[in-house]
Amino acid sequence: MLSAMYASKKRVHRVAVKIDETEYSLSVGEHNDLQKAIIDEFMPRFAPNSKGLYLGDTENKYLCQDAYMLEKVGIEITSHDKLPDIILYDTEKDWIFFIEAVTSVGSMSPKRIIEINEISTRSKSGKIFVTAFPDGKTFKRFYEELAWETEVWIADNPDHLIHLNGDRLLGPK
Predict the structure, then answer these.
(1) How would you classify residue 39: left for phi > 0, otherwise alpha for psi between -120 and 50, otherwise beta?
(2) Domain residue ranges of the chain, discontinuous segments joined by +
(3) CATH code for the domain defined by 2-163
(4) pLDDT tens by residue, 4-13
(5) Dist. CA 43–CA 45, nearest whole Å
């Protein structure tokens, strides 16, 4: 009786997010608040023609997964892969956005880029690596571990991106 009451209360507090006209209910926490900001704020500004191919929840890593499209764009998904938090695919530009919400495993470090490239070796699409931060203070803590040729998006200043080096902003190498 008590366990049912506590379980029902736990379900009340969720983070609602909508991807491609489908609504998902994420567990509560700083990480999923940032993921919601990525979907609600980053996606329409910087990836407006994108489809959501993957979104992991802290409780359910495979909550939102378009296995057909992931396979079609050349991304291998297995239980052993270290997926980024969000994968978006821009159908018009043929770009894949690999987005890491820094509040989970960390930033797009050189090691993370290697891990993501390993699961996308068959992909012919352009790859864009993004680290999302909730605020500038958090960005400053992680700055030194960010990989070059990646993008930085800060949720409390959603209209801007920071590109680390290179001759282009927001595009594949």
Answers:
(1) alpha
(2) 2-163
(3) 3.40.1350.80
(4) 555 555 555 7
(5) 6
